[in-house]
Amino acid sequence: MENKNRASKAVYVFLGVVLFCFLYFILWLIFKEKMPLHLYLYEISKNYDRYAERAFVILPLMFFVAVVIQLLRPTSAKRFLRLQSAIPTSKIKSLAKGLVEIEGALIIRQPLISPVDHEECIGYYYTIENISQDSDGKNSYSTIHRETQCNAFQIKDDTGIIDVIPEGIELVLLNETNVRSSGHKRYTETLLKNGQKMLLVGYADSDNGVPFIRKDDHYKVLGITSASGISVWNNYQPLLRSFMFTCSAIIIIIIYILIQ
Fold first, then answer.
1. Could you give all domains of the chain from N- to C-terminal order, each with its CATH number?
2. DSSP 3-state assignment of 91?
3. Closest CA to 122 of 159, 84, 174
4. Given a cut of 80, is residue 10 above it in pLDDT?
């Protein structure tokens, strides 16, 4: 959920930089030596072919590096996905203190009312987006508000029940439950509901001998996702990594050939 918004911001920043450079070049063509960096731009204009050849290599390389940095940038959702694939699923009855993964049905304790469809739920991820339309009538969306709310709940498997303290919880790879549009805004909510079968990664702790799950202080993770959805992710993740590695290798080879 966060990743799409970050990608949108990155696109806007990139377009802003391109627009600034274009406008600056137009002003330089008009005012010449009155503009800052006049000598550098004059040198580039005199040796346009040489600099264009360099740009043909450097710009794809910069784009490739930016994509790699974005993919490798640590987020709580990425930590959750990495940890859940490495941690074996434990039974609630045999939990040991520390980072754990459990799978079971959610049990509501104190209900929340969702902001979009006013459904009773355990928790929700809620966004408000501005809707804009281009000349072709295609809609685009920009997030102006997001929030996650969740009350304390329990999770149950075939061996027992355990409390979950939801402070800092993140809903990962979950589809939107309800979507409504009004005027130039779109309202979206993703709900945690009673009885849903979910997979949870967090820290198993206890208070006066009573066990509970909370956010892990070291890995900064308390995440929950669909038990069925995460199995699909785990099956296709190796293919995605292989594809990204192959693309990276091809791009590096192409850049090497262009440099020669």
1. 2-73 (no CATH), 76-235 (2.40.50)
2. coil
3. 174
4. no
Q: Is the CB of residue 126 less than 8 Å from the CB of residue 143?
A: no
pLDDT tens digits for range 115-124: 999 999 999 9
Structure-block tokens of residue 202: 């967090």
Assess contact for 226 and 199: CB atoms under 8 A. yes
Whether pLDDT at 73 is above 90:
no
- CA nearest to 154, candidates 110, 97, 217: 110
* Burial of residue 90, with CB atoms counted within 10 A of its CB: 0-12 exposed, 13-18 middle, 19 or more buried: middle
Q: Under a CB-based contact definition with an 8 Å cutoff, are residues 119 and 178 in contact?
A: yes
Angstrom distance (rounded) from CA 96 to CA 98: 6
Tokens of 127: 């966004």
**Alpha carbons 123 and 115: distance in angstroms, whole number:** 11
CA gap 186, 74 in Å, rounded = 29
